[in-house]
């Protein structure tokens, strides 16, 4: 399956796909791959970090009212972390965004932090 086909799984609107990829700063990376957006998602040129970014892109392209992310930035480099945090910060005013994370960056981003231990809520802190 190509990168574009993978993104079309959630939304067949190529304008939305390219807009999200540009906002995430992965459009140029994808365009520079041997087959661009037609590159296989499993090609060796598509590294783990780009795959992670494409997973995030699928959610952003779909643009649901409620978004759930699990360890969203743990495998990303600092530039990509900053890009994702910036995009989520723009979206959080009109979306509900739930994030499971151990990252301090994500905790700083949150409006509310729920701490759990062994399936039990230990604390809820609002900012």
Please characterize this protein's 3D structure.
The protein has 127 residues and is α+β, with helices and mostly antiparallel strands. Helix content is 44%, strand content 18%. The protein has 6 helices and 4 strands, in the order H-H-H-H-E-H-E-H-E-E. It has helices at 3-8, 14-23, 27-31, 48-62, 78-91, 104-109; strands at 66-70, 96-100, 112-117, 120-126. The strands form 2 sheets. It has a two-stranded parallel sheet. Strands 3-4 form a two-stranded antiparallel sheet. Helix 2 crosses helix 4. The mean pLDDT is 91.
Q: What keywords describe this structure?
A:
127 residues, two-stranded antiparallel ribbon, 4 strands
Q: How would you summarize what this structure contains?
A:
This protein has 127 residues and is α+β, with helices and mostly antiparallel strands.
Low-confidence stretches: none
Overall form: elongated
Mean pLDDT: 91
Q: Total number of helical segments?
A: 6
Radius of gyration: 16 Å
**Fraction of residues in β-strands:** 15-25%
Order of helices and strands: HHHHEHEHEE
Describe the strand arrangement of the main beta sheet, using strand numbers. 1-2
Q: How much helical structure, as a percent, in the residues?
A: 40-55%
Largest sheet: 2 strands, parallel
Question: What's the count of strands?
Answer: 4
Helix/strand/pairing class, anyone?
A: alpha+beta
Span of the ends, CA to CA: 43 Å
């Amino acid at each position: 399956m190509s990168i574009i086909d993978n993104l079309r799984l959630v939304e067949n609107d190529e304008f939305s796909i390219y807009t999200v990829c540009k906002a995430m700063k992965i459009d140029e990376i994808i365009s520079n791959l041997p087959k661009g957006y037609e590159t296989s998602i499993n090609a060796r040129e598509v590294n783990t970090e780009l795959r992670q970014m494409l997973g995030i892109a699928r959610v952003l392209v779909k643009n649901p009212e409620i978004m759930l992310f699990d360890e969203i930035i743990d495998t990303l480099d600092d530039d990509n972390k900053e890009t994702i945090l910036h995009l989520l910060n723009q979206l959080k005013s009109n979306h509900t965004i739930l994030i499971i994370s151990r990252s301090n960056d994500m905790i700083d981003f949150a409006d509310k932090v729920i701490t759990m231990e062994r399936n039990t809520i230990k604390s809820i802190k609002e900012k």
